[in-house]
Structure formats: C-alpha cells, structure tokens
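Possible regression after last week's pipeline update?

I re-ran a chain I had predicted before the update to compare outputs. Posting the input and the new output here so someone can diff against the archived version. Not blocking, just want to make sure nothing changed silently.
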Amino acid sequence: MLLAALVGGCASIHNEPINVPLGAERIAQAALIGREGSTYAEEMMIGLAFSGGGTRAAAFSFGALQELERTRLPARMGQGSLLDRIDFVSGVSGGSVSAAYFALKKRDAMADFREKFLLRDAEEALRTRVSVVNLSRALGGGINDSTGFTRWLDESLFHGATFMEFAGERRPRLWINASDIYNRTPFVFGRTTFAAMCSDLGAYPLADAVAASAAVPVVFAPIVIKTYPGQCPVPLPPWVERARTNPASPPLLKAFAEATTRYHDGSMPYIKLLDGGLVDNFGLSGFTIARLSADTPYGPLTPEQAVKLRRGLFMVIDAGRGPSGNWNQAVEGPSGPDLVMAAADTAIDASVRSSFTAFSQTTVEWQSSLIRWRCGLSAAERRRLGAPANWNCRDIRFVVGRVGFDQLGPQRAAQLDKVPTRFKLPPDQVDALIEAGGEALRASPTFRGFVGSL
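New output (post-update):
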C-alpha cells in the first residue's frame, strides 16, 4: 500500500478533452440535433430508459427491444411493430451501449447486437487485474484512461459515428447520460449542454459519449470535456435563467440550470464526467429536464404532435442489483469491500427511486397541462393543427412503468442478480438475460395496458 501510494504520487492518469468548439458554419447544423418536435405527429409515443449494469443491462434491454419487435401494430396503424415507433431512448452505463446502438442502427441493430457486443469481451482492452501498478494508477486518478474502451466500442459498434447522425427529422431521439461530478448533476449529451459550452455536439463521437456514461469511478479516470465560453453567438435558453433564479424551481432543474450557466460563463473550463449511474441509474433525467424546461403546455412536443397524440408509454428497463450478501445475519459485518458496495448501492437505489418518482409526477402534470391546452383550442386552431374527425380533447393518457428482475419471481430474480455487472459474460448468462428482458416486458401490466389501449 505504501509503495503504491509513493508510485501513485508520481503518476497522474487523466483524459484529454476531444470535443471541439462550435464554429459559425456549424451552428445551424448543430441546432438540428435532438431538436424539440423531431418525432413524427402520431397518436402514439414511446420512450424507453435503459438502466446501468454493464453487459447484463445491455442484454436485458435488448430482450425488451426484441419484445417490442414482436408486438405488432394494430392494423389501422399500418405495417410494422412497436419497435418502429419508439420516439425516445435514454441510456446509462451499460444501458447506454444498447440505447446508442439501437438509436443509430434502428431495426438493423436487432440482427447483430448480440454477436457484435453482448457475446464479446468488452474488457479485453482494459486493465482489470489487482496489482501494485493498478493500485498506483487508481490513486493517480483511475486505473484506465478512456482510450482503450472507447476504441473498442468504436471499432466494434459505432465505426466513427457522431451525434450528427441524429440531425433533422429522425427518431428515436437519443439521450446518453453521464454524471458531472463537480456540479453533482446529470450530464446529458444533448444540444442544450453543448450549445452552452460553445462546443460542437455534431462532431462528438458516439463511442466517447457511451464510454463517459460507463466510466465507473476508479476503474476509469474521469472523462474531460472542455468549455469554450464566448466563442459562439448562441445564448442560453431563457428557461435556464428562470430556473436558476427561481427559489421554487424543481431541484433537478435548478441544479442542471446552474451547471449549464457555469459551462457558459467561463467559470468552469473543464467538466469531469463519470458513470451516469452515480446520479441517475435509470436515465430519466433527460426526459424530466426536457419537460420541466418547456415553455409551453405541450413541450417538448410540437403543437401538431400534442393535438394528435392519444397514448404515451414510458418504460424503464432496470437491470439494477437487489440486496446481496449475508452480513445481515450476524452482528459482525459488513467487511470493508462489502461496506463500500453497500454504500454505493444504497446511494444509487435512493437516487433511482427519487428520479422515478419525479418523472412519474412530471408526467402526470404534463398530461393535465395537455388536456387543458387541447380543450382550450378553438375550432379553427384544431383544424389548423390537424385534429382528426371526432377528436376528443380529453382522450390522452400517459403511463409510466418499470420492469426488472424482481418482477420475474424470487427464484428467477435471485439467479439473475448473481450475474455480475461486468462487460464480459458467458453466452448462457447473456441469453438468460435477453430472455428475461422480453418476458418481463411482456408480463408488465403497464405494457399490456398500453398495447390494449391502442
């Protein structure tokens, strides 16, 4: 330990920022990425949030995507399945891998994600052994820098793709979530955050964003993002100042607005990011902030979408860990390693419960706001916005649900909980998780009720 401390005092493991400033010629293009209303105007909306948890989270969420692919649309809605109608997808850590790959490839991702990622060893480019050298690197900032894992992700899945792939009228809209460890807030790889930094989101590689979302503390050194204050003529959105200065602002929105202001005003030259699960392991922050920051009763939808919408489904695909260990059976314990894990799990579980509750309440209030706005429209406004014949202004309903191991019965949940949250798993565990993801979604009362309501 002493030797490692001495070596660590001379070593500094860090990542160089790769984001670039937003040039004047790219401002218009950058505004198209993840813009409000970038989904189609239809009567149905689906949003998915994939939790963290390494390959086990990626496999479990992939199983849920397979179930959506198996669920056919009603005949009156045309051909295809629910998979083709996903509007929003959000991911954290391991869940960000499946979220980003599906958002990029869409239906094509279903054909090869298992072979290209789930069955492979994503840790082959990482230092994972316990050694004096690695301990010294941990004391110096992190055992691994971002290069090995990022390169592996890019060569295996993303092949140089950047966020410019999501410009224009394209769905699903993607949120990759990391944690800003200075401001203690979610860091959402999106247009608002990068515009505040005067940085070009369109040039940022998907592989690097996913690596930031999965940067487990100590295993990885923090991912670094550089701000470029004053180098672009893009002002902060008006809601940022309102949220920052209003004492009654929701805490999540207020903290996010304060962090965004620091990115913009030059007081924070570098942003340090780690695993998104530290602040929100469900990845719901992007959804919640998008709604809380909206200036209209219908935002982040367009008026045309808000008029035609009838049903909205938001599902959390949760591969998080349940309670583990047997130290609750005796006066002694937990031991040091168990204590660290228990403290981390306690913090993460507390945050996800809060984020789920906050999002559920936000969704209830959003539905009420939409009904009031829709019912206040004049006949001329309804026609202009494309309201169909026999339109009912009150016929709109949002449902929020979660599927997890615990909903598959105690014995099955215990078996799945034993799967480690690593980035390499044997094929039998991968396939068990894929099967479980589909089965859990299929059995969900929330999901069944949504499908029936169509």
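Follow-up from reviewer: compared with the archived run. The mean pLDDT is 89. Marking as no regression found.
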